Every structure is written in structure tokens, then in C-alpha cells.
Amino acid sequence: MRRPLAVALLAAAAFTAAPGARAAADVGPTPGRASEGAGAVLDGLKTYGHAVLHAGDGSVRQIPAGLHEMRVDGGGTLQTYGVGVAGYAQPQARFTETGWGGSPLAGNAEAGRIRWVLEHSYPQFNDLAGLAKASGAGALTAESAAAGTQVAIWRLAAGAPVEAADPAAERLADYLQREAGRLPEPPASLGLEPGPAAGPVTGAAGSRIGPVTVRTRAQSVSVTPDAAAVAMGVRVVDADGKPLTSAADGSRLYFEVPAGTPDGTASVTVQGSTKVPVGRIFSSGIPAEAQIVAGSSESAASAGAAAAWPAPGQAATGPVGTLAGATAVPVAEATTAAAPESPDEERLASSGSSAATPVIASLAVGLVVLGGMVVLLLRKRPLEGDHPEEEA
């Protein structure tokens, strides 16, 4: 009976440790970083004609083709065309601004030609008579111009077998597709460098961590540190250490962290009003519903950035910040490809531990204690069959 008893005790130890292990495994990912630029809600298709789509199974169907309108969070409106021919973006769906790399245009060699189409057709080029003459369309209305432009975009974005139902719109689509040059990807309406994808800038408490550079066409943007940063005494300053409440394109922001501040993170949000550049993508999270900007009013936009610093004596990781007036913040060179996503992960990475370390340690201690109990029980309770004289 020694072995069954020992097995039972060890099984009990494993069962006791399981909730802790499950809790460690169930820790969710850190919250996503803020996106750059504008957010908007789709109002729906507003100026449009029709197109004929030839499906792969040989069927033919008529679909609407033209301009959508969006309401920008915080104020402003956008005009957009669809990127995916099969996608029907739902009114009231929420969209966020993104670059080509985060959209169906990622890696698409025709993306620059789509931007050319947008810059040289309706509504950016609002002279319908001139557009009709250049394209040989005869006469164009706003609806047929929007339909022809949308058809050209669908063809370039995905090689879609689609044609405009109206002959004038079809001639415009052919002209735009044939003449399209290549333009570079437009910048975000409002962004910070390094951007969210690069992770936080890092440095040491007692220094100014940064810089983070503002990129925008707005004349001025507001600069607001998060409440937790303010509570810790962290300030957002310029290269001379002067507090910043506003900035412009090219401004450099630094996080000034008081000496002795416990390891942690801080973030800053910049907000302003500007036109969203033609060619920017708005995504709902469903690739087929992606929209591309064809026109914009003055619209609200925002962007965020973060800084992280370790406890004294620990090495910083992530993008290395620079100290204003010096060449670099006095921190150790990063040894990992990316910074930890949270202060807790940063402490664990610096110590060589992982999130499972407390669970493993607890299990080891429990097994030692239970092993001692097994030895004591076995010494105190000799069982039948253990004595040679009884077996004889």
C-alpha cells in the first residue's frame, strides 16, 4: 500500500496546484495600443450608379458602385470608395484609419495607381465636363463619375471582372485604369514616430525619455499625458525640459521621469483637426469592407505613444530613447527583439523569470512537504508482508 498512498498524495498536490496554473494560463493579452489618425462611422452609400459583376461561376449580377460617406468621431466627414468588390460595408459600422500595410492593399503593386485615380477623378477633380472630355465619356453626372471611379478602383485593387452599367461611366473607368500613374502612400492624418507598432520608447527614471516626433498637417495639436503619468509626476516636455501642452508637425516630445520613480509606463495622447489625406484606408476589421478616402473635411484625429522605464539597476529594453542635449539615454543595450508589453512582463524579463515561476515554485515546495509526509507515514506504519518471518 505504500505506492498507492504516495500516488494519491502526489495527485492531490497536482490538483491543488492546478488552479494557480490555470490562472497563469488565463492571463489575457495586454490591451491593444491606440491607433493613429481618425475614427469614423459609416453613414452609407450616397452618390452612386451601378456596375455589372461577372462571378467565377458564370453568373452575372448588378451591384451599386459609388461614394460612401462617413461621420468622423469628434467632428468631420469623409467620402470613401470601397476597396473590395465583394464587400458591402454596413451602415453604422465603425472604422479606424490605418496604413496600406494593415489593409487589403498590403503588398499590392497597384496601390499607388489607386491613389492616382483618387487624386485625378471625382470628387477630387470636380470638373465633370473636363473629366468627361479627357476620358471621352461624352457627358458625366456625379453619379456616373462616382460609378466609373469605383469600377476602376475595384479592377486595380483585385483585378475584379466588373464593368460600369452606364456607358459614360465605363469609358471613364477604362480611361482611369489606362492612365493611372503611381503615387506614394499618404501619411496618417495625425501620427507619432515611433508609432504604436514599435512599442514604447524606453529609458531610466531620472532622465528624459524620447524623443517621440509629431507628424501632422494640422497647424497645432494638443498634448495630454495620461492621468497615471501625472500622478507619478511624469511630465511631457520639449528638448529643453519645458512642459508641452501643444505641438506642431515635427515637434519632439520627451517623457521626463523623476528620479526614484518605481518602474512603470506612461502614455501621451495628441489630438487635433486636419483633413485626412486622400488614399488613407479605413478598416472595420473585415477586409472586404475596407474603404479608401476620396475626400475629407476638417476632421478630428488623435494618436498615442508610450514610454517605459525599469526599476533602478535593471536594464531597459525596446526602442532606445535619447536624452535631450546628449547622445543617448544611459540605459543598457536591448537584447531582445521587442519590449515587454507591460511593466510586470518587463520585470520578469529583466530577472530571467516568467509568469509561470510562482506556480512552479509553489508546486516544488508542496512536493517537498508531501514527500516528507510520505516518509513519516511509511516509517510509522509497517505493513503486512514486510517481515521475512511472516512470509516464511
Describe this structure in words.
There is one protein chain. The chain has 392 residues and is an alpha+beta fold. The protein has three domains: 2-27 and 355-387; 39-179, no CATH class; 190-275 and 310-339. Helix content is 29%, strand content 27%. The protein has helices spanning 2-25, 111-120, 128-135, 142-158, 167-179, 227-231, 343-351, 357-380, 388-391, and strands spanning 39-54, 60-72, 77-82, 94-98, 162-164, 190-193, 201-202, 208-216, 221-225, 235-237, 246-247, 252-256, 264-275, 281-283, 291-296, 298-309. A six-stranded antiparallel β-barrel has the order 1-2-3-15-14-4. Strands 7-16-13-9-11 form a five-stranded mixed β-sheet. Strands 6-8-12-10 form a four-stranded antiparallel β-sheet, with no helix packed on it. Helix 2 (111-120) runs antiparallel to helix 4 and helix 4 crosses helix 5. The longest helix is centred in the N-terminal third of the chain and has 24 residues, at 2-25. The protein is elongated and about 70 Å long. The protein starts with a helix and ends with a helix. Residues 1-34, 320-365, 374-378 and 380-392 have low confidence and may be disordered.
How many helical elements?
9
Helix percent band: 25-40%
Order of helices and strands: HEEEEHHHEHEEEEHEEEEEEEHHH
Weakly predicted, low-confidence segments: 1-34, 320-365, 374-378, 380-392
Order of strands side by side in the largest beta sheet? 1-2-3-15-14-4
- The tally of structural domains comes to 3
Structural class: alpha+beta
Shape: elongated
The largest sheet is: 6 strands, antiparallel, barrel
Rg over C-alpha atoms, rounded to the nearest angstrom? 31 Å
Fraction of residues in β-strands = 25-35%
Mean pLDDT: 79
Tell how many strands the DSSP assignment holds: 16
- What gap, in angstroms, lies between the N and C termini? 20 Å
